[in-house]
């Protein structure tokens, strides 16, 4: 019975994995199909071709794709870094200090997080054009902060709350100032939490499409998701599906690498042995 | 090293509840002071006010002659061992111990020297490069102590440091702490709810109840001359027995019979109607085993034994008795407050391990009436407390401590290095002792 049960678990798990990964596999397969091969009616390409990758990296689409890739990386990394840093201080205060308006800050953060992007993007478009932020990196970094900060504050304050109070108190008794206690004890202990938060924040910024398409007009600031929507085929009768698939694969790679890289850090949890468990 | 003086310390929380209520306590330089009481009595709060982790609502906290009420913990130069040790999990044992020194920006050579010394004293040498997560409970405890002793703090503060260890290790660490304190001669404040720790470690013990200081005295005085019902019931295990007694001239009429009081005690209870007679279990004995020359110092009575417990070195007999409902309720309230729930009114009696008294039978007991106390049932005050005898006991303890301190500093001229060599030589002797344990 236990073996049968285990087999059932395996089958079930496999089904879920296939269900979740099939679209990814499809995109990968699609990216290897030559333009003439796209409608071949089968899952695998008739023969593997790198032509789509050539198109986006050195061919006709490279003018659109490469600057967008650079923009996406730059904007998302900066937005992530700023939001993690700010969220760290905010979350520390929320987790540790008792001040009036604490609840208000948390609920406002939540409200901002659930606010529909589409409803603020039009006013933002007008505002940005008037103050000269339209089609610039800061013009995207600022709205990205509004997406990433709330979630960062929430996850980080949960992490900080799990660090025993005694850690800091011990540090203070040992002669540390509040800042030293934060820097030498709390930050190292919260490192897994900060990594997790950074990854989540990066994904959110990386995946954004609406801000990217509305608040940019040239390759000066246009991120990848927006650029993908502007791909065109070699002629007006040809769909740009192949290059889009190739670009999608390229865009997915950093995310996968990030997860693989930090997976162990996220899971490990550094607080083992701090206190009697 | 410094004395700690507390004057009318009050701690009120937001809801106005006084967790610590008007506590005044003088802790002498080099003294080992225990704060003890049932959970929620404010002992930890008081300790945290000394170290500065808790604000003081009113009163003066004076450490080494300076008022420290408004000073941050790091300016008070005290070291503390937390209940859950609070080691830094991301640092090695070496860096954990070195942490206070690093914060003081001490140079590497000096840090190394001091950490090595602390590791010597606590036998942590082979663990210096490990992380706290890989240590056992006792080792973590020693690292926490290492972090406390590595710098020259004004005083050590312990917040229930042994409550997370198993019983055997607890006994071992208890003697270790006692030895360390005597060797270093540093003022120590130690919070515990365990009365064995309170009795064995402290020069003096402060008993707290609901934020109020009940009695500050040497363990012996607390045991023999408790100031009220609460202290009498809290100190001692098994606890003191309280029997309802009506005053009848110079004698007490109790469920176990009539007991004559000596003149002093008779005078103390004169005019009272009902009192609670407090008798420790060991003031009873199997009457057949009492030597003839002692017999006339107490009285005997016969009672039916409910249960006996033979423990090898001692034996306990449980004797149920009837009490007026009012007294029963009061005794139950008291036992609940002392974190134990006694369901029935019964006396616990310690008898010789060789005694043939068996349960379910009538037996004759002897009671040492010289040592009984009488308590006012309404206020709980000890009516028959001999303040002078108590003070004499505490004086003895103070003298013992002073002679201990004089011995531990030896021919030391007050210079740190001389004191340290002393520490090292005695630590090697101590090492042999602790291995034997």
Gyration radius of chain B (Cα, Å) is 25 Å
Under CATH at level 1, the class of the domain at 62-230 in chain A stands as Mainly Alpha
CATH superfamily of the domain at 62-230 in chain A: MetI-like
Multimeric status of the protein: heterodimer
Report the CATH C-level class of the largest domain in chain B: Alpha Beta
Main sheet summary of chain B: 6 strands, mixed
Task: Assign a percent range to the helix content of chain A.
Answer: over 70%
Strand content of chain B: 25-35%
Q: CA-to-CA gap between the ends of chain A?
A: 36 Å
SSE arrangement:
The complex is a heterodimer of chains A (277) and B (437).
Chain A: H1 2-31, H2 51-57, H3 62-96, H4 102-114, H5 117-131, H6 137-162, H7 165-173, H8 178-207, H9 210-214, H10 224-229, H11 241-268
Helix pairs in contact in A: 1-11, 2-3, 2-11, 3-6, 3-8, 4-6, 6-8, 7-8, 8-11
Chain B: E1 4-12, E2 18-27, E3 32-36, H1 43-51, E4 58-63, E5 66-67, H2 73-76, E6 79-81, H3 93-103, H4 108-122, H5 137-149, E7 155-159, H6 167-184, E8 187-192, H7 195-201, E9 204-209, E10 212-217, H8 219-224, H9 229-234, E11 241-248, E12 251-254, E13 257-260, H10 263-269, E14 274-279, E15 284-286, H11 292-295, E16 299-304, E17 307-310, E18 315-320, H12 325-337, E19 346-351, E20 362-367, E21 373-375, H13 387-409, H14 416-436
Please, could you describe this protein's structure?
The complex is a heterodimer of chains A (277) and B (437). By secondary structure, chain A is mainly α. Chain A has a domain of 169 residues: MetI-like (MetI-like fold). Chain A is 74% helix and 0% strand. Chain A is built from 11 helices and no strands. With 437 residues, chain B is α+β, with helices and mostly antiparallel strands. Chain B folds into 2 domains: 186 residues, P-loop containing nucleotide triphosphate hydrolases (Rossmann fold, 3-Layer(aba) Sandwich), CATH 3.40.50.300; 148 residues, no CATH class. In chain B, 36% of the residues lie in helices and 26% in strands. Chain B contains 14 helices and 21 strands. In chain B, helix 6 links the parallel strand 7 and strand 8. At the A-B interface, helix 7 and helix 8 of A face helix 3 and helix 5 of B.
């Amino acid at each position: 019975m236990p073996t049968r049960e285990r087999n059932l678990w395996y089958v079930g798990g496999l089904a879920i994995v296939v269900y979740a990964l099939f679209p990814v596999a499809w995109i990968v397969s699609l990216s290897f199909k030559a333009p003439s091969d796209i409608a071949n009616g089968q899952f695998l390409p008739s023969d593997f071709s790198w032509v789509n990758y050539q198109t986006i990296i050195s061919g006709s689409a490279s003018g659109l794709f490469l600057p967008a890739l650079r923009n996406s990386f730059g904007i998302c990394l900066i937005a992530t870094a700023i939001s993690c840093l700010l969220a760290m201080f905010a979350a520390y205060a929320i987790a540790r200090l008792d001040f009036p308006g604490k609840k208000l800050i948390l609920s406002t953060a939540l409200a901002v997080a659930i606010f529909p992007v589409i409803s603020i993007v039009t006013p933002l478009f007008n505002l940005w054009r008037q103050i000269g932020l339209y089609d610039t990196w800061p013009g995207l970094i600022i709205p990205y902060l509004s997406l990433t900060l709330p979630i960062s504050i929430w996850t980080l304050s949960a992490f900080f709350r799990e660090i025993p109070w005694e850690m800091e108190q011990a540090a203070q008794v040992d002669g540390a100032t509040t800042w030293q206690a934060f820097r030498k004890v709390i930050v190292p202990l919260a490192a897994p939490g900060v990594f997790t938060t950074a990854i989540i924040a990066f994904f959110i910024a990386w995946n954004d499409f609406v801000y990217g398409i509305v608040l940019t007009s040239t390759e000066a600031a246009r991120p990848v998701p927006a650029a993908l929507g502007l791909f065109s085929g070699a002629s007006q009768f040809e769909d740009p599906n192949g290059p889009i698939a190739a670009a999608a694969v390229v865009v997915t790679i950093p995310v996968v690498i990030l997860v693989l890289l930090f997976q162990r850090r996220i899971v490990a949890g550094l607080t083992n042995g701090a206190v009697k468990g | 090293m410094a004395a700690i003086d507390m004057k009318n310390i009050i701690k009120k929380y937001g809801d106005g509840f006084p967790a610590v209520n008007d506590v005044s306590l003088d802790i002498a330089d080099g003294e080992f002071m225990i704060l003890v009481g049932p959970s929620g009595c404010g002992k930890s709060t008081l300790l945290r006010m000394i170290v500065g982790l808790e604000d003081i609502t009113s009163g003066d906290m004076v450490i080494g002659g300076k008022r420290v009420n408004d000073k941050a913990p790091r300016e008070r130069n005290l070291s503390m061992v937390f209940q859950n040790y609070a080691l830094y999990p991301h640092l090695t044992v070496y860096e954990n111990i070195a942490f206070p020194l690093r914060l003081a920006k001490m140079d590497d050579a000096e840090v190394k020297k001091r950490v090595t010394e602390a590791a010597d004293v606590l036998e942590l040498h082979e663990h210096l490069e490990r992380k706290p997560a890989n240590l056992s409970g006792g080792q973590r405890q020693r690292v926490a102590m290492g972090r406390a002793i590595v710098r020259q703090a004004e005083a050590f503060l312990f917040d229930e440091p042994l409550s997370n260890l198993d019983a055997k290790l607890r006994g071992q660490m208890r003697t270790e702490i006692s030895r360390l304190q005597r060797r270093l001669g540093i003022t120590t404040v130690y919070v515990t709810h365990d009365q064995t720790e309170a009795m064995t470690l402290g020069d003096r013990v402060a008993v707290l109840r609901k934020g109020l200081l009940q009695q500050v005295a040497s363990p012996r005085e607390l045991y023999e001359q408790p100031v009220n019902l609460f202290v009498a019931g809290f100190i001692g295990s098994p606890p003191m027995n309280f029997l309802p007694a009506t005053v009848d001239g110079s004698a007490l009429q109790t469920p176990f019979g009539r007991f004559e009081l000596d003149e002093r005690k008779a005078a103390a209870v004169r005019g009272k109607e009902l009192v609670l007679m407090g008798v420790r279990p060991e003031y009873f004995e199997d009457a057949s085993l009492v030597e003839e020359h002692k017999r006339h110092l107490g009285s005997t009575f016969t009672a039916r034994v409910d249960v006996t417990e033979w423990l090898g070195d001692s034996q306990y007999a449980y004797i149920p008795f009837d009490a007026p409902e009012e007294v029963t309720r009061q005794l139950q309230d008291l036992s609940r407050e002392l974190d134990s729930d006694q369901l029935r009114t019964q006396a616990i009696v310690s008898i010789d391990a060789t005694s043939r008294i068996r349960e379910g039978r009538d037996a004759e007991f002897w009671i040492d009436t010289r040592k009984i106390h009488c308590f006012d049932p309404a206020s709980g005050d000890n009516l028959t407390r001999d303040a002078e005898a108590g003070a004499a006991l505490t004086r003895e303890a103070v003298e013992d401590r002073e002679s201990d301190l004089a011995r531990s500093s030896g021919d030391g001229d007050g210079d740190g290095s001389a004191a340290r060599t002393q520490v090292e030589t005695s630590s090697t002797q101590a090492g042999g002792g602790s291995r034997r344990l």
